[in-house]
Amino acid sequence: DVVMTQSPLSLPVTLGQPASISCRSSQSLIYSDGNTFLSWFQQRPGQSPRRLIYKVSNRDSGVPDRFSGSGSGTDFTLKISRVEAEDVGVYYCMQGTHWPPITFGQGTRLEIK
Amino acid sequence: EVQLVESGGDLVQPGGSLRLSCAASGFTLSHYSMNWVRQAPGKGLEWVSYIGASSGSGAIYYADSVKGRFTISRDTAKNSLFLQMNSLRAEDTAVYYCARDWPDTHFDYWGQGTLVTVSS
After folding, report:
1. Torsion angle defined by CA atoms of residues A49, B5, B66 and A93, in that order, rounded to the nearest 10 degrees
2. How many CA atoms lie within 13 A of A45 on its CB side?
3. CB distance B110–A50 less than 8 Å?
4. pLDDT category, B57, cuts 50, 70, 90?
5. Per-residue confidence at B56, pLDDT binned at 50, 70, 90?
6. CA B76 to each of CA B3, B9, B26, B62, B73: distance values in angstroms, whole numbers, following the listed order
7. CA atoms of A113 and B61, how far apart (whole Å)
8. pLDDT band for position B31 (cuts 50, 70, 90)
9. How many helices and strands, by DSSP H and E, does chain B display?
10. pLDDT tens for residues A1-50?
11. Is B107 on the interface with A (CB under 8 A)?
12. CA of B49 vs chain A CAs: smallest distance (Å)
């Protein structure tokens, strides 16, 4: 199984400042068709997860453009250009290249400093 | 508007059974691949099971942790997804979410979840 490792696990950020979360996979996530099936999810307190980014860098509909995804191979990053209060929650990366099983990172808890 | 509404969660004793439902609206469930994902209290996300679209292979997969105990299915007439859970263990205690796959990407829509508690 592909192991997804996120860092940091806790991320205190000042409002208006940028934030960055790293996600590393135990093997390359490049699929045979050239796609990379790496997604990012946000889970606000008390809510269901919501997908933010799919295939590394594609924002889902309605996701603010302050969220961006990048990376390749085994190293990926979610960036928030300016953190807002509504961004508080837990962020997960997920790989869908080598499955089953689909695997998630441990989660990164973003809080306001 | 796409909506997924889970139900069926309950308190059940170890070794017992439970059937979860996920009612879909705003789209035809059988045209999409669907999944169950769970989250133990205070823990992260764990994929549980997948069923392919009826127009495709209709493949079914399970996480090793539930293989042989859980069964995923769907009812086209009811536009619903199900998860039959047998031989339940304490470690199956979690919120169970159904989540839709958009072709070649996973989990574009999630339900609100239903809580399963396995305890004596």
Report:
1. -10
2. 7
3. yes
4. confident
5. confident
6. 16, 22, 14, 21, 10
7. 42
8. very high
9. 0, 11
10. 999 999 999 999 999 999 999 999 999 999 999 999 999 999 999 999 99
11. yes
12. 9
